[in-house]
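User: Teach me something about this protein's shape.
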Amino acid sequence: MPQQTVNNSVTTPGHSGQRLTLVIRGLKKAFSDVQAVDGIDLEVSPGECFGLLGPNGAGKTTTIEICEGLTEADSGTVELLGLNWKTGAKELRQRIGIQLQETQFPDKLTVEEALCLFRSFYHRGIDIDESIKTAQLEEKRRSRIGGLSGGQKQRLAMATALVGDPELLFLDEPTTGLDPQARRHLWDLVDELKQSGRTIILTTHYMDEAERLCDRVAIMDHGKVIALGTPNELIASIGGEKIVEFAIDSAPHQDSEAALHAIAATLTAIPGVRSHRVDASVHQLSVDELHVTVPLIFASLERQGLHLNDFRTHSATLEDVFVRLTGRNLRDE
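Assistant: First, the predicted structure itself:
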């Protein structure tokens, strides 16, 4: 559906003319000879949790820092809440919240003192008691920040980003470096924020995190958006709902390019196999139905005299989308 334009600001189709929370057009930013952001266009609706995904160096943080007013773009435009940083900076600072990749607090401040300090920056905001409760830091209220764990510091950073009661919240790699339990705590907190109706922009290189939290995602690579949609839409776009991975215990000559091509041709001819690729000697197939396709794969390999030394299956993920689009594993970046 075409977008409507009212009073020079883009509105959300199907939302009663409601203005988009974030609009990015033709955004570019280079550092020396590196094109960090290369002409991206994005729109985010009110109340949406939108994810910017991709490997380190994809341009996610640069994009979000331009949106936050921390970095100036070389070209393109960014509109937040109907405003821009050139003419509406003062108002925007009161209406957005920011959690950076890494927040450095003075170690000798207590949790309560840090929140009081950040709360003083805003004309209106959330009560300090509520902020501490939201961050699940009640028992650490009077503890010095230097003694907090990594997960507790991240929750405090989230609380400081929320203390001004923002309409739009930026979270840049909020769970990087955290243990699994701390990550889950942050996920639960983001879920609560989503339920409150806030618009959230989240950057991450954890695809499971994006699938769990985001309504829509943009996958970035080398400064460009290479895929955009809901997690389910992007996963469905690669064809097949299941991924089959296996290695072959083969003789050296069977690892030749001609042999691999012959194996690939045989496997892709199997009904239900959507695609095939080989990465570090591991074959990966995208298939429709495991119970139908797996026996056919076994039979095909047996006819070729090939023996498996590993075999596993999993549901398709955003990681598989990235691999299909780039030919690289995100975890290897």
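Now, about its shape. Confidence is low (pLDDT under 50) at residues 1-16. The domain at 5-235 is CATH 3.40.50.300 (Rossmann fold). If you'd like, I can walk through any region in more detail.
User: That's plenty for now, thanks!
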